[in-house]
Amino acid sequence: MEVNLQVNPLEKWAKVKGKPLVIAGPCSAETPEQLMATAKLLKDLGKVDVLRAGIWKPRTRPNSFEGAGAEGLKWLADVKKELGIPVGTEVANTQHVEEALKYGIDVLWIGARTTVSPFSVQEMADALQGVKNVAVLVKNPTHPELPLWIGAFERLYRAGIRDLAAIHRGFATSDKSKFRNIPMWQIPIELRRIAPQIPIICDPSHIGGKRDLIFEISQKALDLNFDGLMIETHITPEKAWSDADQQVTPARLSEILSELKVRKDSSTDKDFNDHLDDLRKKIDNLDRELIEVLAARMAIVEKIGEYKRENNVTTYQVKRWDDIMKNRADLATKMSLNPEYIIEIYKIIHEESIRKQTEIMKAVASKA
Ligand SMILES: O=C(O)C(=O)C[C@]1(C(=O)O)C=C[C@@H](O)C=C1
């Protein structure tokens, strides 16, 4: 996939240099007093770059608090005026965008449930055509479809928006997981690889769903070179009208931010780089051996395929496959490797064996 979006670096609009961008504030603006009180505490920390608050809340089921609506924009504008801190909110349609722009909201974000709809994203991009002085952040779609996420950036980019960033908030799952939305870190890792210009902000509140997970998710994001964090913060989290379990107090946010380690993405130290090069050479050699072994394995799989074809035997052998899974997981454990990791690799190996043998079966079918 080719992506060429010359979006502005974060420093251009967020005024952060050499440190991760921090967006914090309540999940929802509930009352003008709650918003202002939270914002004041956050401003006093001196560590928060943008004050966030949801005013239109897309809820899973009706009858939950769906946000203060347009009235909340005035509260956000008051916070911006009184405290001089940039403010941001979620938008989901053209009307939201137009109203937010009227109130001078600095940062808009498109939520995960909206990013899934190219129609909605395009309508908002049209409403943003030619607009200056607004940054637009795009949360990942609820399911892990990277091209859909990228498509949203392309639509906004074509509308002339250059102050763009991604928000990784995890992916919906029905599996039992300690996360509310499973992170699937490989998706933002791949986004960074194919579109390195797009800054990525992590939303540990939505990934974790529980305040106790916020620190570890944030640290992991920083170690993956993310550019910022969006952390839901409320004066009295346990009394919050939405997402009470995943919000922290401004005091706790301050602790989290001071405990997080911000590491550099490379080093200029010669000894470090020389040693790293030596170790990487070892990895290069081992990877070559690994691929040679896979090629040798595949040659035998092909032989078995031909043998099965001559004897009219199915490609998939349940019993043998089940034995391999168990045995390789045991071997992994004995070698101090995570058996789940090895099983995932074997699933890919087996899928390719079946694909190859299916090709071998077909080749004869078409000859016959
Ligand atoms: O053992 C076989 O029958 C094979 O074809 C090899 C192999 C494998 O990749 O290990 C491939 C397909 C079968 O389902 C089981 C195992």
TrEMBL record:
EC number: 5.4.99.5
Enzyme class: isomerase
Keywords: Coiled coil, Transferase
Keyword Coiled coil found: yes
Name of the featured protein: chorismate mutase
Gene3D superfamilies in alphabetical order: Aldolase class I, Chorismate mutase
Residues forming coiled coils: 269-296
PANTHER family: PHOSPHO-2-DEHYDRO-3-DEOXYHEPTONATE ALDOLASE, PROTEIN AROA(G)
Domain Chorismate mutase: 270-361
Membrane-traversing stretches: none
